[in-house]
Amino acid sequence: VVYNYTVHGVQRDEVGWEQSVSVPLLQPGLFGLLDQWDKYLEDFSATGAWLPHRYEEDHHNCYSYALAFINCVLATEGEEPLDRDEFTEKFVVPRTRKASKYIMLYHAIEEQGFYVTDPPSPQTGPGPGSGSC
């Protein structure tokens, strides 16, 4: 389920986000906190700050919703809040750069017909007439 904030208020969508870029915020060893974060997100989303009439495209939007939630969790954990630029630079830009590389690779493969495979394992070696990229 993807929570997002639009002119219609907080939305909970189960489909339609398949081509979005996910920005992981939990370190691998902290996945046990996911249920706790889900509870925080549900409570946070129910506050009056995220009612539909408060939505403003440039200042009170889905990005500010996500950042405010992250800062709410950070405050609960005694951490310093992130400002918009810091969050963008530390979390969003690296993932969008990586996504951009994959998209460029996909388009090159689509146009040129090449594909990439894993190299053969050391025990088997490549068969006659085969090659790897």
TrEMBL record:
Pfam families noted in UniProt: DUF4796_C
InterPro entries, per the entry: MKRN2OS-like (IPR032016), MKRN2OS-like_C (IPR053921)
Tree of life domain: Eukaryota
Transmembrane segments: none
Domain MKRN2 opposite strand protein-like C-terminal, chain residue ranges per copy: 2-109
Name this polypeptide is given: MKRN2 opposite strand protein-like C-terminal domain-containing protein
Native source organism of the sequence: Cervus elaphus hippelaphus
